[in-house]
TrEMBL record:
It catalyses: tRNA(Gly) + glycine + ATP = glycyl-tRNA(Gly) + AMP + diphosphate. Belongs to the class-II aminoacyl-tRNA synthetase family. Its EC number is 6.1.1.14. It comes from Trichonephila clavata. This is glycine--tRNA ligase. It is an enzyme of class 6 (ligase). One of its GO terms (biological process) is glycyl-tRNA aminoacylation. One of its GO terms (cellular component) is cytosol. PANTHER family: GLYCINE--TRNA LIGASE, CHLOROPLASTIC_MITOCHONDRIAL 2, GLYCYL-TRNA SYNTHETASE. InterPro entries: Gly-tRNA-synth_bsu (IPR015944), Gly-tRNA-synth_heterodimer (IPR006194). Pfam families: tRNA_synt_2f. Coiled coil: none annotated. PROSITE patterns: AA_TRNA_LIGASE_II_GLYAB.
Amino acid sequence: MEVFITARRITLFVDNINALELKDSNNEVKGPNINAPKSAIEGFLRKYQKNEEDLLVRKVNNEDFYFIKRESCSFNIREFLKNQLEEMLKNFSWLKSMRWGEGKERWVRPIKNILCILNDEIIPVSFAGITASNTTYGHRFLSSGTALTVKAPKDYFELLEKNSVILQMDKRKQFILDQINKFTKEQNLQLEKNDYLLNELTGLIEWPIVLFGEVNQEKSFGLPKEVILSIVNTQQKYLALSNGKRISHFVTVVNVNNGEVVKGHERILEARLADAQFLISQDKKENLDYYVKKLGSILFHASLGSVGEKVKRITALSKYIAIFIPHASLIKVERAAYLAKADLATSIVREFPELQGVMVDIMLLFSRR
């Protein structure tokens, strides 16, 4: 069994289902020990609607147990799959779900189509007002948009790929990496590794179109690498390329490319970099002690006070721990603890929260220049 996921479809593929009808091969059911209480034996008989004369005795591990014979049962695999899949769809758990139309069913997004086939036969699974068929659809923008008939499960993957959908996530990911590796080799650059973002981008796209843009060096001049990476990776969801010293290019993965897409992304990135330049220039006008004092106005927890009060607790605890560490400087420990949360009051961290803890070091470097 394999599961494939894209931004627009979930596929469950089960291979080698050979039996179209399942039969129960064991027609004897084990019951209680022959020395069990009478109530247990009567309950066993009631469960299977049998009488005492139907009881058989069999040895299991040198002990005697009651058994009964039951009629062999069978069920159709198509009906079984239909019922199981409908139940699965109804009870599928999402962190967030929604209703749409007039139905009461919930799903992560509105369901447009259900395809369900066993060999060449449709299993009429029904959910949210949609009954399964043997048709599916290709890429939202790059295919014709007409329904595609899947004659057999083995044809499904090839049919989708011909219509601009790569179903396998690993294959999409490798496709993206191949394009990046080719570009970095030509430009003598290297990819700033970010596996989490790469996986996220891979999951959002059914047919990756990999585009490369330039980072405006004038807008990014003087910005610490950590800040640029925060904007590129976290804010804009781009992968970053560097020449070893500075971020010079970015990678974005899109569904369509009309020739203006890269320019649009470059303009947005320039604006974000300009914002960061301005915020840091404002923050540099004050020293870190100024920002520590402002922590008193930032709430940490309703029952625990402000961040400023938290810093006092951290400072006291750090000094106490330092007593037991040989050669530790209490003055340096106290100063480090005192400044640890200072960047929470800066404009740059308020705009880019993921930089908290990083900007303290950067601000210290600025103050020493």
